[in-house]
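Issue: ligand-bound run for 1-O-phosphono-alpha-D-glucopyranose - logging full I/O for the record.

Environment: standard queue, default settings, no custom constraints.

Inputs:
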Amino acid sequence: MPNGIWLAWDSMRSRTAVIPAAGLGTRFYPVTKAVPKELLPIVDVPVLQLVMDEAIAAGAEHIVLVSHVSKTPVEAYVAPSAAVIDKVRASGRDDLANRLARIGADVRVSVVYQDAPRGLGHAVGCARSAVGDEPFSVLLPDEIMGDATLLNALVDSCEKKGVGAVGLMRVPMEQVSAYGVITPSASSPDEGPYDIVDVVEKPAQADAPSNLIIIGRYVLTPDVFEEIDALKPHANGELQLTDALRAQSLRSPLTGMLNRSQRWDTGTPMGWLTAVVDIALTRPDIEPGFRAWLTQRLGD
Ligand code: G1P
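Outputs:
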């Protein structure tokens, strides 16, 4: 594709958010036999709602859920329900009622299906026709963020530079093999933003180019769909989004930005529990009683 066409996305702002939610959630068996992991509650609000709230706070007007046909509760959750909104409002939680009311009203929600767990690259590819020819964000719902600061910064960067932007975090080298790992350009400042000149999925520690890992927030230009189409499956049969980002970054560096807000990895039972406790301690309606109980419990 000639350079001039990539520049077509200069000053185009991402308005669509893709949330891959087709996974079977095996790390949460047995609960995920019946309850999609995206609907696990953080106190009483599902992870999916928190991730949609973040996308909306960063300007999303259209949310594309990549789901699996068996996960009908995901569709039930995004179906409008005036009765639920009224009850939540009547209980004094106006802010939450407003967040619920936006879904399917001023924010359109589309559901597309991924037939089998064929990797994150494949999942994002399933959203292609729903996204169209515009920059879009990808939010992995295994991670929840304290606020939308990072996603907003990624959206701004992509709008300004016309190239994709990804969220990053530094981790101890022993952990890099669980993630996509970037190579920053030699001229990138220590604290970013980084020009990403290469990226590799789940390298062995010894082969990792840095300890800068990709976290589950991306804002991508739509040429990534062509790279996804050209992907070769990994040994496990999965198409990796990271490989498509690699192809893009070899042509023209993507931007990497460190997350400076809170982040919880809710993709494991321990991470999920940590998020529940931390967020319960920020809830004015829960915190006093919960803190008193927890303090006493830990003192036992
Ligand atoms: C996926 C991506 C990986 C990224 C990670 C962030 O991996 O493939 O590049 O670093 O999400 O959470 P997964 O966690 O699906 O194995």
